[in-house]
Amino acid sequence: MLAENVVLSEPAARIEDGRLAGDADITALRKLVPELYSFDTWLAGPGAPLLKAAGAAGKADVALR
């Protein structure tokens, strides 16, 4: 899905490589929360249908940002 959509792939790459990750210590966080997904892992698993459903949803009071 990311390879097909530059709008999603560019921000995801920046998050994964740390440029938008801020000061979070992801390694330490994963020790505290082992089930924490990377964006790629989430998208390859439970995230893909959720993201597709959100993109296909009609008009709503809450927007996907």
Describe this structure in words.
0% of the residues are buried. It is built from 4 helices and no strands. It is mainly alpha-helical and 65 residues long. The protein has one domain. It is 52% helix and 0% strand.
Map the helices and strands:
Blueprint: H1 6-16, H2 26-32, H3 39-44, H4 47-56
Strand content: under 5%
Radius of gyration: 14 Å
Q: Please outline the major beta sheet.
A: none
- Helix share of residues? 40-55%
Count every helix, treating DSSP H or I runs of 4 or more residues as helices. 4
* N to C succession of SSEs: HHHH
Mean pLDDT: 77
Notable characteristics:
65 residues; globular; mainly alpha
Give a quick summary of the entry.
This protein is an all-alpha fold and 65 residues long. The chain has helices at residues 6-16, 26-32, 39-44, 47-56.
